[in-house]
Design a protein that fits this description.
mainly alpha, 56% helix, globular
Length: 291
């Protein structure tokens, strides 16, 4: 099995399994069935305690090993545990940050961001040790020494202001994606408009793949002033709609916080009735124009 950080099973080709089958398959002699079972449990958000327990055990798997030393099952298990939202997985995911497999470390950082447990902050910070000077590509591999993007995004999502001095230098890294991740995290940690504007400027870049990355980052931080630039960005409408949806979700979440204890549906049918700003309503109109 080749080294990869991406999931390989689109829902359209997902095999029918029961929860019991998927959990049992995590211990199957067929390694491909183990790999698929971990993906399936995450994809379909199987949050039962036995499923979570089995995935935590899978984080220590030694059987599914690639010729390059990767741990495919561990990767899928780490990804799945972030989606399931069970805090019991946090200690095991923290241990995964020391795994020899870069992609396991990356998946663990991404899942720890989803779980938002501050206990993970010190271990995530350790992956930034050495700073930009040591953030080099591993010889013969397509990735840097550490999953810096995922680590900085996790620290930003957790509100780890203690990491600001370590993250800020990565704004000058030679890899654009790393710069964007640093800007994303710095905006989350400081709310300084300058960092949001750096990502807006990235939407004018010549590389369409980097424009897509910047769109995702702007959606993740909910940077409302980027709405018009997102709608104008030269890329597929689907990417722009996802980014605008991120902006809108942040506005809805703010309304929920203001109305703590009240009820508010995830889908907003009448924006004015829930107190969304005119700018947020404009985001909805931009989304409609892209459909």
């Amino acid at each position: 099995m080749q080294e990869s950080s991406s999931e390989e099973y689109p829902e359209a080709v997902a095999q029918a399994l029961t929860v019991e089958q998927a959990i049992a398959n995590l211990n199957h002699l067929d390694l491909s069935l183990r790999y698929y079972a971990a993906w399936w449990l995450g994809k379909f958000r199987v949050r039962t305690p036995p499923a979570v327990d089995a995935l935590i055990v899978a984080l220590e798997d030694e059987a599914d090993r690639t010729t390059l030393g990767g741990y495919p099952l561990r990767r899928n298990a780490a990804r799945a545990l972030g989606k399931l939202g069970d805090q019991r997985a946090v200690p095991a995911l923290i241990r995964c940050l020391n795994c020899s497999d870069y992609y396991v470390r990356e998946a663990a950082a991404q899942s720890l961001e989803m779980l938002r447990d501050p206990a993970a902050i010190p271990s995530l910070i350790q992956l930034l040790n050495g700073g930009v000077a040591t953030a080099m590509f591993v010889p013969g591999r397509p990735h840097l020494a550490q999953p810096y993007e995922a680590v900085m995004e996790a620290l930003g999502g957790m509100g780890a202001t203690v990491a600001i001095p370590l993250i800020q230098p990565f704004l000058e890294h030679t890899v654009a994606r790393v710069q964007y991740a640093a800007a994303r995290a710095m905006y989350q940690l400081t709310q300084d408009d300058a960092y949001g504007q750096r990502l807006v400027q990235a939407l004018e870049g010549s590389d369409v793949n980097l424009r897509r990355v910047a769109l995702a980052d702007l959606g993740a931080i909910g940077y409302l002033p980027a709405a018009d630039a997102i709608a104008r960005c030269s890329t597929e409408n689907s990417f722009k709609i996802i980014a605008l949806k991120g902006l809108l979700q942040h506005q809805i979440d703010e309304v929920k916080l203001r109305r703590a204890g009240g009820s508010l549906q995830e889908k907003v049918d009448d924006p004015a009735s829930v107190g969304l700003s005119d700018a947020a309503i404009r985001v909805m109109n931009l989304m409609d124009s892209l459909l």
